[in-house]
Amino acid sequence: MKLAARIKAFVALGSYLREIPADELDRLCRQAQNRNGWFIPSNVRFALKSWANLLQAQNIDTWLSAYTIPDEQDTPMHVGLVMAGNIPLVGFHDLLSVLISGHHLHAKPSSSDPLPELITKKLLEIEPGFADYIDFQERLTGMDAYIATGSDNTYRYFEYYFRNTPSIIRKNRSSCAVLTGHETADELKALGRDMLEYWGLGCRSVNKLFVPEGYDFPLLFRSLESWADVQNHHKWINNYDYYKSIFLVNGEEHLDTGFLLFKEAEALASPVAVVYYQYYKDAQQATQLIEEHSEKLQVVVGREDTPGSTAFGQAQRPQLWDYADGIDTLAFLLKL
């Protein structure tokens, strides 16, 4: 397939997602939630809408303008893709990158997320020429390269088995926000989106706050009230009740909004329904703390004066050129 045809197919997929009939959208939502109780319809709709916006010609052209991509690969490589399933369509960017690069995709989908396969079926309807390039399978052996996303434990497994093959291997990462105490109510409300969209399960979800000494938490809590509906989800409230009980029984100090717990801790990744926070003395120390954890952070949310930060409310809205772990997936694929 020519590069123009590959691009045209994904642009058409974006158009389909923007205009998807209501009954088809409802069916996708049901199928996703039946597989994974965390994938409620609003989250699935948000993920699909995000990709509908990303897969526009201008966005794809801007993304690809930084690379020299062959019209066709002289010798297409067979790339094994181990997909995660913590949030809807989390592995779709890797899928897109492999196919845009002109290589063959061999994907092991997550049992928690049926959406990549379902959306790929529509892609094949749009461009049947992809049929020779796409294969979903349970075992990935004998590939020319691998891209795998998992936990710190699976990272060691992947590192061993793919040690002699070009690979990108990702492990656990989380995200944080740096607050100064001068944020507006709208910024703090947007921070709620960064913390609670997808239930805080994504690597781009804010699980940790760095706050100045003497920080006014009640102002933050008032701004989060619009997210109180999370307590109506049984899986969320079970986690909330569990960790609240643990904190109370162990006499551990914590803050409680009634649906979300805050606990002072140096760790980055917090459990579901809990957000960790850590005090800093001044801007220099805040920057130092971020640098110390840079290898474990995906996104840093904050105001413009926070180095390398993403704006409030934008953590779960990456662009096509925002690569996981800062590793340029497309550049890796084009060097194979």
Report on the structure:
Helix 1 (3-18) runs antiparallel to helix 5 (92-101). By secondary structure, the protein is of the alpha/beta class. The mean pLDDT is 96. It has helices at residues 3-18, 22-35, 41-54, 57-64, 92-101, 115-126, 152-161, 185-196, 217-223, 234-249, 283-292, 329-334; strands at 78-82, 104-108, 134-136, 145-149, 167-170, 174-178, 206-212, 255-256, 261-264, 274-280, 297-301. The protein folds into two domains: 3-172, Aldehyde Dehydrogenase, Chain A, domain 1; 174-301, Aldehyde Dehydrogenase, Chain A, domain 2, CATH 3.40.309.
Provide keyphrases for this structure.
alpha/beta, globular, 15% strand, 12 helices, Aldehyde Dehydrogenase, Chain A, domain 1, single chain, 2 domains, 336 residues, six-stranded mixed beta sheet, five-stranded parallel beta sheet, Aldehyde Dehydrogenase, Chain A, domain 2
Count of runs of 4 or more consecutive helical residues? 12
Gross CATH architecture of the largest domain: 3-Layer(aba) Sandwich
Main CATH class of the largest domain: Alpha Beta
Secondary-structure-derived class: alpha/beta
Beta strand %: 15-25%
Shape: globular
Output the CATH topology of the largest domain. Answer: Aldehyde Dehydrogenase, Chain A, domain 1
Total of domains: 2
Task: Give the overall pLDDT as a whole number.
Answer: 96
Q: From the alpha-carbon coordinates, what is the Rg to the nearest angstrom?
A: 21 Å
- CATH homologous superfamily title of the largest domain: Aldehyde Dehydrogenase, Chain A, domain 1
SSE sequence, one letter per element: HHHHEHEHEEHEEHEHHEEEHEH
Q: What are the low-pLDDT stretches, counting only 5+ consecutive residues below 50?
A: none
Helix coverage percent:
40-55%
Count the beta strands. Answer: 11
Provide the spatial order of strands within the biggest beta sheet: 8-9-10-7-6-11
